[in-house]
Amino acid sequence: MIPHPHRPRFLAAAAVVGAVSLTGLLIVDHGWVTPVATSSAAPAGGADNEALAALDSLPIKGRAPKTGYDRGLFGEAWSDDVTVADGHNGCDTRNDILRRDLVDVQLKPGTNGCVVLSGTLHDPYTGTVIAFQRGRGTSRAVQIDHIVALSDAWQKGAQGWDEATRRNFANDPANLQATDGPINEQKEDGDAATWLPPNKSYRCTYVTRIVTVKAAYGLWVTQAEHDAIARILADGLPRGRGRNPPSRPHRWRPRAGGGRCRGLLPELHGRHGRRGRPAASRRTGVSPRTGRRPGRHRLRVAPVGPNPVTGR
């Protein structure tokens, strides 16, 4: 079913993927990762179960032909003329995501707090730290990835959407992540069966975001994609509890259980205007959702210096 272009179904899909009471759940909150207290009422592996249930709800079909695909069918790149989060805030989507995902951000004067001049990306895809500097020869060091690639969406349901829905999809913060430029180019339009982030510790988050977005927009998965996602979600399950799927399952899904691979709930970003989160939380570092500071539990990566600049 095609979602209404002016009423994205992301919140409903997020509710399917998980809730804050889930054991070990982490919430991606405006570009930082904040631990949420574990609920004694939640069963072990509950977040995994929710993500797996959402995965199991996705139709399994073959790819439609790529015939007719064109980037322009998803609207002008980084359009602000959308009805998803951050739409019509006066800033292009690329700068919205840079402000959300970078730290130590410096903004260009006279742009009403919109254009990012510089900042630091703690890249979840590679586990490295990348210095961003706006400029003709440097901006491409940090690129914005469509978690579900536009071409992949085209072949798995988006051909039947109207233009407004495709434009929303291309600019939905839930489907976007700032990352290392060369890694984004390496991914191209791959799905979870053909490409995963090099940083293995982020893969569970990554595939859960795929499931969330596809459920929100009514997209399907191929059998290979379904099985690849299921294996990652099951990666941390105890041995002997569904870790090894049959060689050619129709809908293989592991049994419940705790483990290292926790389901992660990507939240809607940018619901507080141009800069992404309320002024109070920007000043204090307190998460507007949890009331907690990231503290020592913030996402940590090993500094490796600026990434070499490449052009696509």
Keyphrases for this structure?
312 residues, alpha+beta, three-stranded mixed beta sheet, three-stranded antiparallel beta sheet, 13% strand, disordered N terminus, disordered C terminus, GmrSD restriction endonucleases C-terminal domain-containing protein, GmrSD_C
Total number of beta strands: 8
Strand content: 5-15%
Which stretches are poorly predicted, pLDDT < 50 over at least 5 residues?
1-44, 236-312
Derived from helix and strand composition plus strand pairing, the structural class reads alpha+beta
Describe this structure as you would to a colleague.
Residues 290-300 have a biased composition (Basic residues). InterPro entries: GmrSD_C (IPR011089). Pfam families: GmrSD_C. The strands form three sheets. A three-stranded mixed beta sheet has the order 2-1-8. It has nine helices and eight strands. It has a domain at 45-236. With 312 residues, it is of the alpha+beta class. The two termini are 35 Å apart. The chain has helices at 10-17, 46-57, 93-101, 150-154, 163-171, 181-187, 203-217, 223-233, 279-284; strands at 26-29, 32-35, 102-107, 116-123, 128-133, 142-146, 176-180, 265-266.
Helices, strands, pairings?
Layout: H1 10-17, E1 26-29, E2 32-35, H2 46-57, H3 93-101, E3 102-107, E4 116-123, E5 128-133, E6 142-146, H4 150-154, H5 163-171, E7 176-180, H6 181-187, H7 203-217, H8 223-233, E8 265-266, H9 279-284
Parallel strand pairs: 1-8
Antiparallel strand pairs: 1-2, 3-4, 4-5, 6-7
Domain GmrSD restriction endonucleases C-terminal: 92-231
Protein name: GmrSD restriction endonucleases C-terminal domain-containing protein
Organism: Mycobacterium talmoniae
